[in-house]
Design goal:
Elements: H1 3-40, H2 47-79
Helix pairs in contact: 1-2
Length: 80
């Protein structure tokens, strides 16, 4: 395993996780009412709490992408 392998690995991790985040965002924008109705069958949650949970989840996921995928990729590019 060399540095090129890890560069490719972190690049693909960044791409795949960014696509997952984008898909989550599209599903939330396009179907948030349906998703809320689906989840409100199991949990007593207000619409405001539901939106806050999703926004926080997306923010943490994006932060995770930056910290654990993009930052190592950039570091590997710099040290190469």
């Amino acid at each position: 395993m060399n540095i090129k392998f890890f560069q490719d690995f972190f690049l693909w991790c960044t791409i795949i996780n960014s696509i997952a985040l984008f898909f989550w965002m599209l599903m939330f924008i396009g179907g948030s009412n349906w998703i809320y109705q689906f989840h409100s069958r199991w949990f007593k949650i207000s619409l405001e709490e539901f939106h806050a949970i999703h926004y926080k989840g997306m923010a943490f996921y994006k932060l995770g992408i930056f910290l654990f995928n993009l930052a190592p990729y950039i570091v590997l590019l710099i040290i190469e």
